[in-house]
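Propose amino acids for all 73 sites.
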């Protein structure tokens, strides 16, 4: 599985079918596409995802996603 697919799978467990759209929006902030993500992008990506999820679904959900993404590194 590709990195973006792995990230989408983790996101989908908490945010459902909007996960690919959310990942694409976060990647746009990084001036990348999801397919261009590398392991070197993970720290910035995790922080951006955390902030985005926290605003809409709260800190508990954001922390859960953050921990799951950190486990991928």
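Proposal:
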């Amino acid at each position: 599985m590709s990195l973006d697919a792995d990230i989408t799978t983790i996101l989908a467990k908490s945010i459902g079918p909007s996960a690919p759209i959310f990942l694409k929006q976060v990647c746009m902030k990084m001036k990348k596409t999801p397919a261009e993500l590398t392991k070197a992008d993970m720290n910035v990506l995790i922080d951006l995802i955390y902030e985005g999820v926290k605003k809409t679904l709260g800190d508990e959900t954001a922390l859960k996603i953050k921990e799951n993404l950190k486990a991928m590194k």
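The first helix runs from residue 3 to 15. The chain has one domain: 3-70.
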